[in-house]
Amino acid sequence: MQQADLDALSVAKRFGAFAAVADLSFSVARGSFFSILGPSGCGKTTLLRMIAGFQQPDAGEIRIGGASMNGVAPNRRPVNMVFQHLALFPMMNVFDNVGYGLARRGLARAEITRRVGEVLERVSLAGSQAKRVDQLSGGQKQRVAIARSLVLEPTLLLLDEPLGALDLKLREHMKIELKQLQAAFGTTFVYITHDQSEALVLSDRVAVMNAGRFEQLGTPQSLYYEPQTPFVAGFVGANNRIKGRASDVAGNAVEIVTDQGLVLFARAIGTVRAGDAVEAFVRPEIAQIARTASKLPAEQPNYSARVESLLFDGANSAVLLREATTQLEFRIALAQTGQFKDLRAGETVAFSFDPQRAVCFTVRPA
User: Which single residue of 25, 59, 159, 279 has CA 20 to 30 Å from 318?
Assistant: First the structure.
């Protein structure tokens, strides 16, 4: 069994009547990249602060490296934290920033020089010791902040939305760098974000958090392809979300009549019975469009629609369609073959999707 660097056992935290974290239990394997993904206000920052020791849980226990952290001060925990705004010391050069924690521990100057040099080389900043912070690019500052934490050899590195202040192109680049750095150092990373792309790209395992609880915990692939709740299906990845009622159920195949009268089919997640109110989720990339229905797979139900607008974004291009009889809107990904480069708003097209790749859930009463 793989050893855990972090265990949370029935951890809870309240602020008055508000339950920020509600009875959470989970483990993070040694040397893994674990992300907590969720919207603002879901409790992920509170959870990270309890792991770091800045807040104490009202109930439960946090263990790091097998040792209980209850009552242990932040500076006594084998943990370091990288914040969104990095908190580098602007009056210090790179060497002093990275070596600050080592100096506080009382290490000899020669040992600090050796360890700072080694960690800077591993984050691709060899020879940058004398540079001022204001001479660094955004990506270089990010790597200095990570080096300053990793040089202390923590059991856990906690990252609180560290890419949030970067521009889009640099953020995409730093996602790859972070993944490579974690693999190179082998340190356990616990990462919080509201950005699903960051969580899916970076992580070995992801917990999707909502209202103080984990809705689902698993690999990025399992969250994306096998969501277990409507919240996860709607939050992870793009989706067409459709409300209706199950008119017939055969095995896991559900026939759905939408509120507008459209009949479509999807795969049941959990128990769905005929007559249940349901929500169906159809990912844009599972659908296909054609200028005539005869070009679509014969075994799949197909629908006629009008092109509302084209959303050109290179490889992520899509089209917004309005279904002909019910006026339901569907977002469909465009295959990057150039086949539809001349598609125009107002055209009539056909579309279909594999019902086994769409999912539906019974809507539970609030």
Answer: 279
Say how many Å lie between the first and final Cα of the chain, rounded: 39
pLDDT above 90 (res 39): yes
Residue 45 identity (one-letter amino acid): T
Q: What is the DSSP letter of 334?
A: P
Q: Which string of b and e fits 164-195 if b means at least 16 CB within 10 Å?
A: eebeeebbebbbebbbebbeebebbbbbbbbb
Distance CA 361, CA 233 (A): 10
Range of the domain at 34: 4-231
Task: Return d(Cα 330, Cα 323) in angstroms, integer.
Answer: 7
What is the tens place of the pLDDT at every residue in 196-218? 999 999 999 999 999 999 999 99
User: Beta strand pairing status for 287-290 and 348-353?
Assistant: antiparallel
Query: In whole angstroms, how large is the CA radius of gyration of the chain?
Result: 25
The CATH number of residue 310's host domain is 2.40.50.140
Give the integer Cα–Cα distance in Å for 143 and 121. Answer: 11
Boundary residue ending a domain (175, 199, 231): 231
Distance CA 206, CA 211 (A): 16
CA distance 146 to 358: 40
pLDDT digits (tens, 9 = 90+) for 64-87: 999 999 999 998 999 998 877 777
- CA–CA dist 17, 12 (Å, integer): 13
Token pair 């974004």: residue: 313
Does one domain contain both 206 and 303?
no
